[in-house]
Amino acid sequence: MNNNTKTVLDFEKKIIEIEERIKNVTALAKDSDVNIDKELNRLQLKLERQIQQSYANLTPWQKVQIARHPNRPQCLDYIKALIEDFIPLSGDRAFADDATMIGGIGKYHGISVVVIGQEKGVDLETRVKYNFGMAKPEGYRKAKRLMDLADRFNMPVICFVDTDGAYPGIESEARGQAEAIASSIQKCLQIHVPLISIIIGMGGSGGAIAIATANRILMLENSIYSVISPEGCASILWRSADKAKEAAEALKLTAQDLKQLGVIDEIIAEPTGGAHRDVLTTIENVDKTIYRNLTELLSQSREELKKQRNEKIYAMGRNIAIDTTAKDNK
Fold first, then answer.
1. Which of 225, 198, 221 is nearest to 211 (CA)?
2. 263: closest CA among 218, 326, 301?
3. Over the stretch 291-309, which tens digit does the pLDDT of each residue have?
């Protein structure tokens, strides 16, 4: 993961100013005999207070900014940290391999699992390689093939969701993007093994749902999950992307909103200051939550797992429709 890129979010400017002050004081101490311990302690306390203050009451738009932060841990970071003996598997056996959709088998806490996820890349070269996290039809067909493999050999599936959406290019539409996404969703509903999906950053539209139709849907605290980006929504409703902040409010795309609506099952806490400030703690929190949920699901039979997943998704649609109707009638 690339920690060299300095991305400053609007509401983090005061935090960055204090961090720069700490760096300057530390550098000054190296060139002189001045004791700076007292000043460093004061600045460190000030920094901690500022981080807590800045992150205490985040708006939906601010959470969108955090979810997009380039230094958040990505799919391959989680795989490297959590999956032993990972063997990547390539290709959809129909057209090509899609590098965006990472897939393979490995060991998770000694359990053989299939892992699927979207990788965005950390610099220009890798972002181009992974197509900025936007999968093409062959990516979703690869995911479908790997879910079939998991079902055949009775291996749980763990999915790391992080995409702005499926790739909208002409070639993708020509190769059946909509059908590939729909088939992947259908396969999620058909398999008889535990399926856990974790939204680790951006959960964008059908590109996310294709691998997030799961027994347990988990979300990192500052990630988002939405049918459309705030900018896209604003362009449609207000004919201006400048209304993205208002759109973010209306879309109910935060983990807290979606937990209340029953779309997701659990929110995974991030360290104060966001996942990009403490990658190791974030991965540890994700690990504990996945393992607890997986242990619970492994106690169910294959038929129970499939039934629970289908009933959960169908009920989700009914409940949201009822909730929306009730609000409209008020």
1. 198
2. 218
3. 999 999 999 999 999 999 9
The two tokens of residue 150 are: 């998991």
32 Rama sector, left if φ>0, alpha if ψ -120 to 50, beta otherwise: beta
Sign, CA dihedral 55-231-1-184, equals: positive
Of 124, 203, 126, 205, nearest in space to 168 by CA: 205
225 exposure class (CB count in 10 Å sphere: 0-12, 13-18, 19+): buried
Domain positions in the chain = 10-54, 64-329
pLDDT confidence of 330, banded at 50, 70, 90?
low
What mean pLDDT comes out for the span 313-326? 68
CATH 3.90.226.10 is right for the domain spanning 64-329: yes
Total-model pTM: 0.89
User: How far apart, in whole angstroms, are the C-alpha atoms of residue 203 and residue 118?
Assistant: 10
d(CA 13, CA 97): 41
Task: Return the amino acid letter for 229.
Answer: S
- The tokens describing 248, both together, are 């973010």
* Local structure of residue 65 (DSSP, 8 states): H
Cα–Cα distance measured from residue 284 to residue 307, given in angstroms and rounded to the nearest whole number? 30
* CB-based contact 262:319 (threshold 8 Å): yes
Which pair of tokens denotes residue 96? Answer: 């090509």
Tokens (6 digits) for 197: 């999906």
Q: In Å, how far are 71, 83, 116, 157, 264 from 197, measured between CA atoms?
A: 21, 15, 9, 8, 10
Is residue 101 within 8 A of residue 120, CB to CB? The reply is no
Alpha helices (runs of H) in 74-229, residue ranges in sequence order: 75-82, 124-129, 137-152, 170-174, 177-190, 205-209
For 21-35, b/e burial (b = at least 16 CB within 10 A) is ebeeeeeeeeeeeee
161: left (phi over 0), alpha (psi -120 to 50) or beta: beta
| Cβ proximity of 14 and 50 under 8 Å | yes
